[in-house]
Protein 1
Amino acid sequence: MSFAEPVPVRAGAEVVVGPARRGVRSYVAFSGGIDVPPVLGSRSTDTLAGVGPAPLRAGDVLPLGSPTGSPAALDVAVPVRPGGPLRLWRGPRADWLTPADWEVLTGSAYVVSPDSDRIGMRVLGPPLVRANRGELPSEGMVLGAVQVPPSGLPVVFLHDHPVTGGYPVVAVVDARDVWRCAQARPGEPVRFVLR
């Protein structure tokens, strides 16, 4: 079967989705959607807040809604960019890192932590010391925000990120590279470069 194309499936057929060949996540859509009760207007699961339908488990049977029309081809271009450093923009708390911290962040090889998920890509490697070791009130965060918790190990926030956080957001991953963070496999090397 081809990538990113609609595939007709007869009623009662079993659909098997194998492991991702690249990255860690695959996406499947159904004409008519998955017919579960919406929570706050959404049928998806918020893993951080624990609201919405239960996360899928092996053996689950999905109730499908009625198709709303003919399947359409992919309407969004699939980003393709070979590996390389993740581009960073300085964030609102960039001054919480010393020049030496910036050298560590942009000059070190990090690896993706097994603790990464849809909330954030966590990395293992040299910790950042932070010029300011204090705490601050919660602030709004955007997709791709790079927060430095007390451990000193950066976290890149992804689609299920919280709306606020209490640790400094020192940088933001360029919007063109965020998808790469979401598809990074545990143990994969990661490098950062400042724009």
Protein 2
Amino acid sequence: MPSSIRSFCARTGQRPPGDHGAVVRCILESLACASRLVLDQIEAVTDRKIEVVHVVGGGARNQLLCQLTADAAGRPVLAGPVEATSFGNVLVQAFGSHASLVELRELVRRSIGPQHYAPRNPEAWSDALDRFERVVLQGQH
């Protein structure tokens, strides 16, 4: 994967990441930018503002990813639960049709509580987001 990332960067006129840490940072920043791009697209299609990003599953364990997502998205991130699918299965089996989705989500929120990440200086992401969007759209042609 690192060699594919470096090749992609070189092919698209970007400076390839050097060491292992730079590759990981490149991946995490790309995921954060992709999240922002998708949020913007969803808002454009639905004509609704998305106020908070929820990260569940394994990604919720990565504190840097969650913070970068909050920063790039310019929105708070609520991370967790890590085992969202398992909790959902257990709750549906335990409560079945006796509880609404809203009630089940509230039960999980009270039981586990998400980790909160506030956006820090989202304006600093402007150039990175513009570059990411150009590269992504370039790759779609």
